[in-house]
Write a structure and sequence with these properties.
This protein is mostly helical. The protein has one domain. It is 72% helix and 0% strand. The protein contains 21 helices and no strands. Helix 9 packs antiparallel against helix 10, helix 15 packs antiparallel against helix 16 and helix 16 packs antiparallel against helix 17. The longest helix is centred in the C-terminal third of the chain and has 29 residues. The radius of gyration is 22 Å and the shape is globular. The termini are far apart. The relative contact order is 0.19.
Length: 375
């Protein structure tokens, strides 16, 4: 009887855990805390945080419990990540949730979303210089787009072994947009620039809104065919929204489909961060490069907005450039927050959504370009 008790105790997670599991449990609990207490992307951080807890309960190999065992339930769910199934479904929901009116009303603001993608390509070059393989460098660079689904999709295609650290880094920086971006925005703009008021955008017709997802899809995917799975679903979701006659499908896309996918994606990505796989020097390097990438993307949008103002009669508020990263809609909200800190009556949110949405499209095109070069 005593031997059975000893054997049982030796098979528990308490006996098999080491300091690395404890570190990951702290990280997972921190994610949950930030999501619930600080409201930092709770729909993402809470499932991911709990997934980190799930993935760091020590288990015996061969029982079909670990996410990396081919006969486990978690492994089957994780196939949606490794095969790139979940990100397009997220994009379908984003498309069904998004109103492209502000972007169509003033197309010039789309350039800010394009400029912010500099963070992707500069970090790609930096990762190459630090010794990462081209496929790994491309996957790390995409973190600068602050677009978790795109980062997961590209990494699944180019560097599947890095999905865990890259996904966690991408979603972490998305959640920390209200913390990371404001200091950069204030550093690179003057008070006078932050006080600039934007003129009211023109009204966009229903016909324009219906035609745009079709034309936009063709233009973008002919330019970067590798972005087809993401942008095809994004523009389909938006067409379902604007067509009215497909409102039932649009409602499903922006509620049940995206919510279910977000839960499973967050849980499995979190569970993939097993301590022995995640806690490596390589992961630390990915997080450092991701922070640089995100900072460069934010700064690129701000600086390009200031350059545009050299040639525009009707000046734009350069804070809008920070919304070029594709953390929708958080980066647009941060623009509103920083602008109203200077002038409470200045409303920038609607205008910031234009570069924010174009940033989503830009990051997907950037991923497609990198994939086509590396494959």
């Amino acid at each position: 009887m005593e031997d059975l008790v000893i054997q049982f105790l030796s098979n528990t997670g308490y006996a098999m855990a080491d300091y690395r599991h404890l570190i990951m449990l702290v990280i997972g609990s921190t994610f949950i805390y930030l999501g619930i207490a600080k409201h930092y992307e709770p729909l993402l951080l809470v499932p991911i945080g709990f997934g980190i807890l799930v993935g760091n309960v020590p288990v015996f190999q061969g029982l079909g419990l670990s996410i990396y065992e081919s006969n486990s339930v978690l492994h089957y769910l994780y196939q949606g990540v490794t095969l790139g199934i979940y990100p397009p479904l997220i994009f379908l929901g984003i498309g069904a949730l998004t109103d492209f009116s502000t972007m169509l009303a003033r197309p010039i603001l789309m350039l800010l979303g394009a400029a912010a993608q500099m963070g992707i390509f500069l970090t790609f070059l930096g990762a190459l210089a630090l010794g990462f393989a081209p496929n790994e460098a491309a996957s790390i660079g995409i973190i600068g787009g602050a677009d978790g689904p795109t980062a997961i999709f590209l990494t699944a295609k180019l560097a599947p072994t890095l999905i865990g650290p890259i996904a966690i880094a991408a979603y972490s920086y998305m959640a920390l947009v209200p913390v990371i971006q404001p200091p950069i925005m204030k550093l690179l703009t003057t008070k006078k620039e932050r006080l600039i008021r934007m003129e009211e955008p023109r009204e966009v017709s229903k016909r324009e809104k219906i035609i745009f997802p079709i034309i936009g899809f063709l233009l973008c995917c002919y330019l970067a065919p590798a972005a087809l799975p993401l942008l095809g679903m994004l523009f389909l979701g938006n067409l379902l929204k604007e067509a009215v006659v497909t409102e039932r499908l649009a409602q499903a896309a922006r509620s049940a489909i995206i919510d279910t996918t977000t839960i499973v994606l967050g849980l499995t990505v979190g569970a993939s961060t097993q301590a022995d796989v995640f806690l490596t020097p390589q992961s630390v390097g990915i997080f450092a490069l991701g922070a640089v990438s995100f900072g460069v993307a934010t700064a690129s949008g701000l600086v390009f907005a200031k350059i545009m103002n050299l040639f525009l009669k009707q000046k734009i508020n350069p804070l809008l450039g920070a919304a070029g990263v594709s953390a929708v809609p958080d980066s647009a909200r941060v623009v509103q927050m920083v602008g109203q800190a200077e002038d409470p009556s200045n409303f920038l949110l609607m205008h910031a959504m234009a570069p924010n949405i174009s940033g989503v499209i830009g990051s997907a095109i950037g991923a497609g370009v990198l994939w086509s070069f590396i494959m």
